[in-house]
Amino acid sequence: MQQAKRCGVRGRLVCPVACRLTLAACILLSGLLAGLVATTARAEIVAVETGPEQPKAVAPVTTTPAPFVLPVFETPAPPHREKALGADAPMPEGVNLDEGERLRIRVGVLAYSPPWYDGAFVDESLQYLRWQLPRYEFVVRYYPPEALRAAIRKREVDVAAASTTFFHAERMPTLRELAAIVSDTASDPSRAAAAAVIVRSDSPLERIEDLKGRRVSVVADEETPGLYEVLYEAAKAGHDADTFLGSLVRRPPLEMKGVIDDVLDGRADAGILRACFLEDLWRAGSVSYQNQIRVLDRRKGDGLVCYHSTDLYPGWTLVSSESLPQRAAREITAELLTKPQNAWGQYWSVSTDHSAVIEMYRTLKLGSFAYLRDWTLERIWREYWPAIVIGFFTLLTLLIHGVVLEKLVRRRTRELERVHAEQAQAQREARELTERLDALERAGAVGQLSSIVAHEMKQPLAVIQNLSRGTLRILEDEAPDLGDAAEAVESINREAERAAGVIDRVRAYGKGHADRERLSLERAVKRCVERFIASGKSRLVEIRFGRLEAGDVFVNPIDLELIVINLLSNAVNAASTRNRPTVEVSVEREPEAKAKSGNVEMAGGSEAPAMMRLSVADNGPALTQAAFDSLGRTVLKSSSKGLGLGLLIVKSLTESYVGRLTFERAANGGTIAVVRLPVAAPSAGASDAETAARSANTYSTIEATQAKDSPT
pLDDT tens digit string along 406-453? Predict the structure, then answer.
């Protein structure tokens, strides 16, 4: 050994061939010795650990899916020295070693059922590290599963060696992977472990699914690789892993060979072994069971050449805890990765994929995923966080939408209420306007009738009056004894005068002798048209304005409204027979002309005021010549909607303001009704009242002249 060390360290350049051969022989010899030591150590552990089967402890709930990561090298802590290091004391970080000083590295190895050639390789590798790193003292202890977990939690080990599935079983202090074993049976350390299900050769069971409800033999404290992998296969096939197997026959720890005996003796329908256990038995010189047992669902061509029935998982790995200094971790990793391959084809590499182990524990709800068995808030969040997030944002969106929609509804409601109130107000105004128009029409009709009655009865009453006066004169010339007759005739005269006074008052009312105001004709006409449209009497007829020129007139507003309303009513009735009925209203100013009545000029030859021309044109059918000539002349005409006095009222009111009503034929075949009213032209410096008075006197003069020229 000393010769090999000298050759390996100092004499590589002097005797390379001889030293290398010597080094290889020493490594092979140390491997065989390590195997013997491991067998002796395992035999001692069997003697200590075997006994009555203890109840299995429930794994604590954990939340971290991966208990260790790849090596992460941290900055060393400030250096310090420690002369005496106990076996259980953690190794200080960054120690400067003097001659003769050695630091302890506590190594914990998981004990497995023998024969176990990967365990022998671990012993061989520890011997190699002792040789290559003499500055460290490696103290090795073998632990059952629970004891090794407890030692890791208490930080009683610096380096641990076990299967990858062991380290994922539950949450433990942060562990860093140093290296993973590559054996002659599996070239990929990420796909080097599995489980094998054995049955008797004459068993009717063919597949893992056939184990449902069966009695199966397993080794206590060696659930993986083994039991967990088989249950995972059943879960992937759609079975409930918790109730898949009927019962378990648990062998004491480190007695996996007893599982084969249980199957052969009929104490179990099947047994679960770790992959390569049968091959390890053959290598150790045990009895061959090829004719007595067979493997269910044997897998081939997946990278593992041993008998196995499940998918492949990462194999054995060497990890370091937080207590191992960074320098020591680096040196151990470097030595292991550069260690030559042994005679069995075993060497160290790195495992890079642990996803299969994580998915197995997640599906079985074991280890760090045990929380999935309880419906806690944590599990609900982990299981359904996408749905929870989507539901939260959906609810938030609905709430925002509801708030916005409520505001819009309130706003629209206020607008509808306002529109409804305006519509109700407009309807009320239209109803009131209609009632007013009806009242005005009735008043106009009564006035027209009064004018007609006064005109017709004036002459008979005048005759009665004249006759009564003549009779009085005759009686006055005769004998006075006719006093009673004279008194009676006087009474007739008084009553006749009284009747004439009443008729004169009625006639004055019919002529509209009311207070006159100065009005802007175009504005007043526009208001009247708007009121007419608002009353609903337009009956879908389009009423539009033509030319609207400014000009003032002295009229009573009610009389002007009666004139416009009656003209519009007649125009709408005439145009309503067309497909597109139209009525056009215009207000224009005509040039001044001398006012004449017949052949008599006004006193002083003064010119009459200019006239404002109000025209209402419709596109109704063309009238016959006889009907056109009779417009405004007929006292009454047949009508299904009134007395037919509209044009007579317009004519009477127009003439009462010294105006004229005429009719013209339109180019489109309709009729144009034209009302001319004198323009109110105020004198310079005169007030409106004085102007109105003078205009009234002028209108009275014109009216008197017209009355004088007209026949009785």
Answer: 999 999 999 999 999 999 988 888 888 887 777 777 776 666 666 656
pLDDT tens sequence across 644-680: 567 877 888 888 888 999 999 988 888 999 999 999 8
Find all residues with CB under 8 Å of 600, minimum gap 6, and list them. 705, 709
User: What size, in residues, is the chain?
Assistant: 712
Which amino acid belongs to residue 629?
Answer: D
Q: String of b and e for 150-159 (b: at least 16 CB within 10 Å)?
A: ebbeeebbbb
Q: How far is CA 514 from CA 440, 502, 655, 687, in A?
A: 14, 18, 14, 20
Q: Are 711 and 459 in contact (CB under 8 A)?
A: no
Q: Which residue has the tokens 């007139």?
A: 553
SS (H, E, C) 294-362: EECCCCCCCCECCCCCCCCECCEEEEECCCCCHHHHHHHHHHHHCCCCCCCCCEEECCCCCHHHHHHHH
Q: CA-CA distance, 261 to 267, in Å (whole number)?
A: 8
Q: Are strands 517-520 and 215-219 parallel, antiparallel or unpaired?
A: unpaired
pLDDT of residue 370: 80
Angular region, 99: left φ>0, alpha ψ -120 to 50, beta rest: beta
DSSP state at residue 539: T
Cα dihedral 633→637→640→642 (10° resolution): 60
pTM of the predicted protein model: 0.46
Q: Is 194 exposed, middle or buried (0-12, 13-18, 19+ CB in 10 A)?
A: buried
Where would I find the beta strands (DSSP E) of 387-541?
A: 517-520
User: Which secondary structure element, helix H or strand E, spans residue 647, and what is its range?
Assistant: helix 646-656
Closest Cα to residue 366, out of 58, 49, 677?
58
Please name the helix (run of DSSP H) or strand (run of DSSP E) that holds residue 196, with its range, or none.
strand 195-200
Describe the crossing of helices 646-656 and 483-511 by its angle, rounded to 10 degrees: 100
Looking at residue 378, what is its pLDDT? Answer: 74
Whether 106 and 156 have beta carbons less than 8 Å apart is answered as yes
Q: How far apart are CA 566 and CA 155, in angstroms?
A: 113
CA distance 510 to 505: 9
- Phi, psi for residue 671 in degrees, rounded to 5: -125, 145
CB 673 within 8 A of CB 602: no
The stretch 364-368 carries a mean pLDDT of: 83
Cis peptide upstream of residue 252 (ω within 30 degrees of 0): no
Using only C-alpha atoms, the chain has a radius of gyration, in whole angstroms, of: 64
Which residue carries 């009686």 as its tokens? Answer: 475
Q: Say if CB 430 and CB 534 are below 8 A apart.
A: yes
- How confident is the prediction for the chain on average, in pLDDT? 75
For the stretch 299-319, pLDDT in tens is 888 889 889 999 999 988 999
